[in-house]
Amino acid sequence: MAKPSARERILGSYEVILADRGPAEITLDAVAAHAGVSKGGLLYHFGSKDALRDGLLERLERLTDDDLERARTAPEGVVRYYLRSAITDVTSDLALHRTTMAAIRLVLNDPTAAEVSRRCTERTRELMLEHVEDRLTAELVMLVGEGLYMRAALGEEATESLLAQIDEIADRIEAGAPAKATIAAGHRKN
Amino acid sequence: MAKPSARERILGSYEVILADRGPAEITLDAVAAHAGVSKGGLLYHFGSKDALRDGLLERLERLTDDDLERARTAPEGVVRYYLRSAITDVTSDLALHRTTMAAIRLVLNDPTAAEVSRRCTERTRELMLEHVEDRLTAELVMLVGEGLYMRAALGEEATESLLAQIDEIADRIEAGAPAKATIAAGHRKN
DNA sequence: TTTCTTATACCGTCCAGACGGTACAGTTTC
DNA sequence: GAAACTGTACCGTCTGGACGGTATAAGAAA
Question: Are A172 and B176 in contact (CB < 8 Å)?
């Protein structure tokens, strides 16, 4: 990967600036400069700022699907895989994490772009539901994960100390879940 | 209450636009129009856009402190109070919620303003630590709450169905905590 | 083999409009 | 009569985006 295509580089710069400096500082000039490309060059690949946004969201969806596939086959199970990556990603340089951070910033800046992000969450939730005993467990795992992403987005230090406690977290969250066969002994919603 | 001062109205409009439409659409003109005030009038009260931001963050800090005081004396306990308001606030029109949403959008747009928000989180965490048995419990409660705020900020529908499950959520999270006192049995107060 | 054509991948400049902010004179409200 | 505005006019800067030009390489045509 000595030389990623200019297009990829531009998209990467877009993400980095979004994730590190926030939407307030994202301009075509800034992206072009960071990517080592002229503004004209940038506009050759992405005809508008909106196209840049669409490119990011597209990438987010692709990377998320890849990650869900990895989660599905993770030996530790979906719950622990999800929690682990929500914690680890904060410091790791996984492409998905950077893309996610950028997307969060983007969507919170301009709520009209929220659909893709919602779709990604929804798919994660579906996968989670297939792998836990009840709805509440899935909900809590998701919420803890979203909390971690929130912290990362707010620029708080990584909570790496949680890494060693993943098993305990998962155990606690699953603690009250009904045993395998039946769903929720009191309330079920449709 | 029939007529809040123009200053308060302006700040309110600033919050509403931030929370509903996002930082991308916040301009002095938009705020002035929404508040029913001329641009000159706006600038009379807030000499610059930054002053508007500072006003919001100041209000956030004040409302947060008020809320922490309420949490401290809530009969259901800090944990349940915190979870309940993180769920309820999504739909309720409490001033704190709107201010928080606006602040989240603001901070994620311009990370340099993150300090106040961090301070509020820190104070909440401290209170939480005083009222739970161990660190992990506090951490999980906070994370679930932050997850809920994240969802609200992303514009997802309120998870009101969780309201009925607050006790179960709290029980699960506290499940593995070293038992200093009876926790799961009933509401514990301090 | 040289020339012409076409496609791709850019560069650099320019411009209209938006935005933050200033200035200030006039008007209403307390 | 002061404080709290309104309204208008204006300025400098930044930004997105349009546009025309350039370099290069690969084929097709002569």
Answer: yes
